[in-house]
């Protein structure tokens, strides 16, 4: 009886070994994500009810922001036109090359589906976060020049090694981190020095980088 059981067990093992390995499950698609973008219209396809834009500002979603996008619309997409006196109803037919649009929608499986389109939309202030080493200070203009180490978002077009002038004003908050993980201690513009490493964030206003906060960082390890 024992020999018979061992024999049957070996036969089962051989049968199982002959079964081909199951193929790996395909990677599931990323779930849909909401987005808001501002862009300039480069093409309109009235047949397919799509339009293409050069992306100026992109918020939301996952991964790197796109530089271009084709927006899909349908009968549920809402359109409006921005005017000096307020927004008025619009339609797909009002979209034209050269316009600046704001689009709210959903990104799914690589496609951009527009839910709301505002034509001739004004651009909001571009937010930024820039870190680097101070190479110059101007106490009169309250500016600091940075040799950039990192900059976000990528749409700013600022690369490591670039030089950027950061403007501060009475609303800018200054603080210093002496040890990683410790609270930020309040300081002033006068406490900054050339070769200090800082992280700044704020908004681009009239082409100037206006800092909302400047954080002086601990010296990098040698």
Q: What this model shows, in words?
A:
The chain has 222 residues and is mainly beta. Mean pLDDT is 86; it is low at 4-12. The chain folds into two domains: 33-119, Beta Barrel (OB fold (Dihydrolipoamide Acetyltransferase, E2P)); 126-216, Beta Barrel (OB fold (Dihydrolipoamide Acetyltransferase, E2P)), CATH 2.40.50. The N and C termini lie far apart (74 Å). 8% of the residues lie in helices and 49% in strands.
C-alpha-based Rg, rounded: 28 Å
How large is the share of residues in beta strands?
A: over 45%
H/E element order: HEEEEEEEEEEEEEE
Task: Identify the strand order in the major beta sheet.
Answer: 1-2-3-7-6
Q: Nutshell version of this structure?
A:
This protein is mainly β.
Task: Throw out a few tags for this protein.
222 residues, single chain, OB fold (Dihydrolipoamide Acetyltransferase, E2P), mainly beta, 14 strands, five-stranded mixed β-barrel
Set out the fold topology.
Elements: H1 2-18, E1 33-45, E2 50-60, E3 68-72, E4 78-83, E5 86-89, E6 100-108, E7 111-119, E8 126-138, E9 143-152, E10 163-167, E11 173-176, E12 185-186, E13 197-205, E14 208-216
Parallel strand pairs: 3-7, 4-7, 10-14, 11-14
Antiparallel strand pairs: 1-2, 1-6, 2-3, 4-5, 6-7, 8-9, 8-13, 9-10, 11-12, 13-14
């Amino acid at each position: 009886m024992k020999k018979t059981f061992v024999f049957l067990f070996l036969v089962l093992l051989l049968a199982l070994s002959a079964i081909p390995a199951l193929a790996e499950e395909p990677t599931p698609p990323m779930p849909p994500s909401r987005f808001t973008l501002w862009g300039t219209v480069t093409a309109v396809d009235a047949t397919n009810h799509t339009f293409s834009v050069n992306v100026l500002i992109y918020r939301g979603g996952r991964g790197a922001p796109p530089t271009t996008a084709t927006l899909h619309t349908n009968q549920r997409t809402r359109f409006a036109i921005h005017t000096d006196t307020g927004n008025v109803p619009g339609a797909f037919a009002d979209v034209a090359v050269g316009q600046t649009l704001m689009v709210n929608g959903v990104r799914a499986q690589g496609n951009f589906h527009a839910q709301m389109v505002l034509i001739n939309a004004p651009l909001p202030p571009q937010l930024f976060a820039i870190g680097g080493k101070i190479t110059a200070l101007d106490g009169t203009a309250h500016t600091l020049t940075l040799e950039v180490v990192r900059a976000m978002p990528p749409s700013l077009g600022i690369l490591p090694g670039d030089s950027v002038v950061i403007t501060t004003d009475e609303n800018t908050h200054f603080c210093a981190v002496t040890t990683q993980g410790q609270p930020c201690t309040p300081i002033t513009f006068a406490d900054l020095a050339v070769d200090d490493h800082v992280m700044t964030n704020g908004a681009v206003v009239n082409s100037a980088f206006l800092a909302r906060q400047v954080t002086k960082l601990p010296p990098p390890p040698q």
